[in-house]
Amino acid sequence: MRSKELKRGLQPPLIVNIIISTVSIIFLALFLVLPLVVVFGEAFRQGVSVWWGSIAEEESLSALRLTLFVAAIAVPLNLFFGIAASWALAKFDFWGRNLIITLIDLPFAISPIISGLIFILLFGINGWIGPWLIKHNIQIIFAVPGIVLATIFVTFPFVARELIPLMTEQGSEEEQAALTLGANGWQTFLRITLPNIKWGLLYGVILCNARAMGEFGAVSVVSGHIRGETNTLPLQAEILYNEYNFTAAFAVASLLAFLALVTLALKFFVEWKSNKLETV
Amino acid sequence: MNLKFKKYSVLPGFGLTLGYTLFYLGFIVLLPLAALIIRGSELGWSGFWQVISDPRVLASYKLTFGTALAAAIINTFFGLIVAWFLTRTHFPGKRFIDSIVDLPFALPTAVSGIALTAVYAPTGWIGKPLMDAGIKVAFTPIGITIAMIFIGLPFVVRTVQPALEELELELEEVAISLGASQWTTLVKVILPMILPSLITGFALSFARAIGEYGSVVFIAGNMPMRTEISSLLIITKLEQYDFLGATAIALGMLIMSFLLLFVVNLLQSWSSSRLKGV
Predict the structure, then answer these.
(1) How many other C-beta atoms can be found within 10 angstroms of the C-beta atom of residue B64?
(2) How many cross-chain Cβ pairs, A to B, lie less than 8 Å apart?
(3) B155: nearest Cα among B219, B190, B211, B204
(4) Would you tell me which of A140, A179, A269, B266 could form a disulfide with A145, CB atoms 3.0–4.6 Å apart?
(5) Domain spanning B19-277: CATH superfamily
(6) Please, how many CA atoms are within 13 Å of residue A104, restricted to the half-sphere of its CB?
């Protein structure tokens, strides 16, 4: 039993530790926690029934449906891509591997507004494919397909960048053993690789989903803000806010803030689980 | 020398997964980005310059990069303190505070935008006392900076924290046992070792602030020439169907951001090569 932990490294005087702790807690409380408290405070200011009334509004409900719909397409596609990319990039060594890894990270380096703009330049009325789309009566910009595409773009790297380092670190000895013992490729993936990467996978999916449901800038550029049709929850919150309908805006925002809290809780849980597994 | 494209492996599925990766990457990421660059080049150098040198565009660049720089500097300072607090002090509930740091990553930017505006508006929780003291925060560059601090902080904390955790405590103990004061140990031993990660954190938070839209646009006030950020100006141009103008502003932002990241990378390789020499 350890009665007293051995003190290691730099030991600043107590007063310095107190100052550092106080500054950190005040800074975090003021800049991070207070805005979150304000969201819920404003949302419920006029009571739960007014809050519920704002949520149950037809426009808000259709925004909620669209947000769920977009995430239901974007997240599985990027999940599938993330698994394929990490298999190719982590389990094999080939020329140009690092270049591809850098390219996968590109969407993170690009401003959300520019992420939306590039799809306008492709599919908008003056875009490369725009005139062809008009002729065939297909609408992408200012319609749901554009929102889906922009969301896929901004959430593109999440799963892949979580899995590539993890799978590189794990190497492929276990897979090689399975294959020599007669398992086929698919069995090897399902029984060996997948159990090894499940927490990293879940982690990537959680972050990808949070961004997919919460994306604002890129979606705002391609959506066209058509009420009841192309408004996601964040866009609905913006519209209500700009109409000075603050309580309703914060009611919609509180749904998204709740999503953020669930995301943080899941993230906490996954980190705890995978840490526990590592120490076993 | 191995002239083969790929090293031999018994694992199956390379062609299929790499093929799919390249197809998806090309279609979703590279094709749209190529559109931006090729459409931008239609402008030519003089057309590009004409859009960029417009006073309103220049004012937006100055505002965006200026406030982003201020926010990144503030975040580097407080981010270091918070990272130190999270790695070097021990108290109950630390993991809870630790996960709060990720809040700006998880909270949709539009939500942070309206929440920050509610806090700092002249009638808001913090805005009102500050207003009484004669400081107007919302709808000024100060408000923009505050929003950028909010979204940039986790980048600094999450890059500095692992570096602090991996620090070899023996080095500090050696310095102290050889007679260095606490302060000297901090400045001459610890800071040089975490400098590369501080620079990375600074760069990430700077880059994110430059491109940020959702959390900034509500608190900014959006007055042309004064509180209009570049991202918003791109949207304004798009609403006027000025696609080339929007493209030029976007390219200008991208070029400046990449130059900046290039300089930061140079700084970083300098600071880590200095460490290796020791």
Answers:
(1) 26
(2) 281
(3) B204
(4) A140
(5) MetI-like (1.10.3720.10)
(6) 27
Residue B213 DSSP symbol: -
Under the banding of pLDDT at 50, 70 and 90, the label for residue B277 is low
CA distance B233 to chain A (A): 10
- What is the distance in angstroms between the Cα of A40 and the nearest Cα belonging to chain B? 9
The beta-carbon neighbor of B106 closest among A103, A217, A264 is A264
| CB-count exposure of residue B71 (10 Å: 0-12, 13-18, 19+) | buried
Query: Can you name the residues that pair with B6 across neighbouring β-strands?
Result: A94
CA distances from B242 to A121, B236, B238 (A): 11, 9, 5
**Which stretches of A10-57 are DSSP H helices?**
14-28, 34-43, 48-55
Contact B189, B172 (CB under 8 A): yes
Residue A28 touches chain B, beta carbons under 8 Å: yes
Mean pLDDT, chain A, as a whole number? 90
Q: Taking CB atoms and an 8 Å cutoff, what residues of chain B touch A270?
A: none
Average pLDDT of chain B is 90
Contacts of A250 (CB under 8 A, 6+ apart): A39, A42, A43, A45, A237, B114, B118
**CB of A25 less than 8 A from some CB of B:** yes
**Domains of chain B by residue range:** 19-277
Tokens of B17: 């997964």
Q: Tell me how crowded residue B10 is: count the other CB atoms within 10 A of its CB.
A: 9
How far apart CA A27 and CA A30 sit, in angstroms, is: 5
**In terms of pLDDT, which residue wins out, B167 or B109?**
B109
Nearest to B119 among A23, A38, A92 (CB): A38
A31 vs B31, B150, B243: nearest CB: B150
B-facing residues of A in 197-256 (CB < 8 A) are: 207, 210, 213-217, 220-221, 233-235, 237-238, 241, 246, 249-250, 253, 256
Residue type, position A172, single letter: S
How far is the C-alpha of B43 from the C-alpha of B38, rounded, in Å? 9
Question: In 3-state terms, what secondary structure has residue B89?
Answer: coil
Q: Which residue has the higher pLDDT, A2 or A191?
A: A191
Q: How far is B212 from chain A (nearest CA, A)?
A: 6
Exposed (0-12), middle (13-18) or buried (19+): which is B181, by Cβ within 10 Å? exposed
H helix runs in B43-124, sequence order: 44-52, 55-88, 94-100, 103-106, 109-120
Structure token pair of residue B19: 């093929």
Determine the distance in angstroms separating the CA of A195 from the nearest CA of chain B, rounded to an integer.
Answer: 17
Express each pLDDT in A181-212 by its tens digit: 999 999 999 999 999 999 999 999 999 999 99
pLDDT in the model for residue A2: 42
Residue B30, amino acid:
L
- Mean of the pLDDT values across residues B221-246? 91
